């Protein structure tokens, strides 16, 4: 029946409870990820098990990160294909899509270059955004760095999820997990140097949570980057708190509106924007 919900249960590989991320979907496939970062309490190697007063997440350097690709409507886990990607430590995916008639999957995600410091020495973490290309026909995996800056918590125009897109907006680690600004990357520049095309720094002592992209559905022209990047900004020196709205198409991510907030909004890893129509629908 059209519109019926179909569910399937899959078994992951026989590994200790590693960090398994469900990456964004391409049109006909889904991506999963096995990371060396895992619950340190459950690690089989005693060297990486949690000790009192240490982080609940540890990294086992003996594990090789893997990306898994499975058809969207697979019957079971036997249709999953795994691809090793040594040195690629993904915590957040940004987007993924298919190219070359479905023979290739392209994914954009930050690579945590110092995974051993996850959640314990966050100030030592550096995230390098990469474009990962998986050739399903040959099995080859290639990786292209997109920027040198410490960038994570990336967002895109939500209408582009699962299909090829051009722009992403990332929090600038200053250091992580504090976000001192926002950088815009142009994925079409991959392979031609740094892909940063715009950046806004909030100033000394000012930090934000994850940015979020809001399309201009009222006066917009339909371009992918026609909209606004929004986030909360806290000034640790003065205690001031602002809701900041930036022009996503401007070369400096110009601030076009600010709202002074009466109280502090705590830093958060992730953001969300709810439209007025979505709020109204919850009360119907």
TrEMBL record:
Gene Ontology molecular function, alphabetical: carotenoid dioxygenase activity; metal ion binding
Names of required cofactors: Fe(2+)
Organism: Triticum turgidum subsp. durum (Durum wheat)
Keywords: Dioxygenase, Iron, Metal-binding, Oxidoreductase, Transit peptide
Protein residues bound to Fe cation: 92, 270
Keyword Kinase: no
Chain residue ranges for the region called Disordered: 37-60
Entry's Gene Ontology BP terms: carotene catabolic process
Any single GO CC term annotated in Swiss-Prot or TrEMBL for this entry: chloroplast stroma
Protein name as annotated: Uncharacterized protein
Residue ranges with Low complexity bias: 37-47
Family: Belongs to the carotenoid oxygenase family.
InterPro entries, A to Z: Carotenoid_Oase (IPR004294)
Matches recorded under Pfam families: RPE65
Cofactor: binding details: Binds 1 Fe(2+) ion per subunit.
């Amino acid at each position: 029946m059209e519109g019926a919900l179909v569910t399937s249960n899959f078994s992951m590989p026989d590994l200790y409870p590693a960090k398994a991320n469900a990456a964004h979907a391409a049109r006909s496939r889904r991506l999963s990820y096995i990371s060396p970062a895992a619950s340190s309490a459950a690690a089989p190697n005693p060297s990486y098990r949690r000790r009192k007063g240490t982080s609940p997440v540890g990294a086992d350097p003996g594990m090789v990160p893997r990306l898994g690709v499975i058809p969207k409507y697979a019957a079971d886990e036997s249709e999953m294909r795994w691809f090793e990607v040594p040195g690629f430590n993904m915590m957040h995916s940004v987007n993924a899509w298919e190219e070359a008639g479905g023979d290739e999957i392209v994914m954009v995600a930050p690579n945590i270059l110092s995974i051993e410091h996850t959640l314990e020495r966050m100030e030592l973490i550096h995230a390098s955004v990469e474009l990962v290309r998986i050739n399903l026909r040959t099995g080859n995996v290639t990786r292209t760095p997109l920027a040198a800056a410490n960038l994570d918590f990336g967002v895109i125009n939500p209408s582009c999820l699962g299909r090829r897109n051009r722009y992403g907006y990332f929090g600038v680690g200053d250091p992580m997990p504090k976000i001192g600004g926002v950088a815009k990357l142009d994925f079409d520049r991959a392979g031609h140097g740094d892909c940063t095309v715009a950046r806004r720094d909030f100033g000394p002592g000012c930090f934000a949570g994850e940015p979020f992209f809001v399309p201009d559905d009222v006066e917009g022209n339909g371009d992918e980057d026609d909209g606004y990047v929004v986030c909360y900004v806290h000034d640790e020196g003065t205690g001031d708190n602002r809701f900041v709205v930036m022009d996503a198409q401007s070369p400096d991510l110009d601030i076009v509106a600010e709202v002074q907030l009466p109280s502090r909004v705590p830093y958060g890893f992730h953001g969300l924007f709810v439209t007025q129509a979505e709020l109204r629908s919850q009360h119907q």
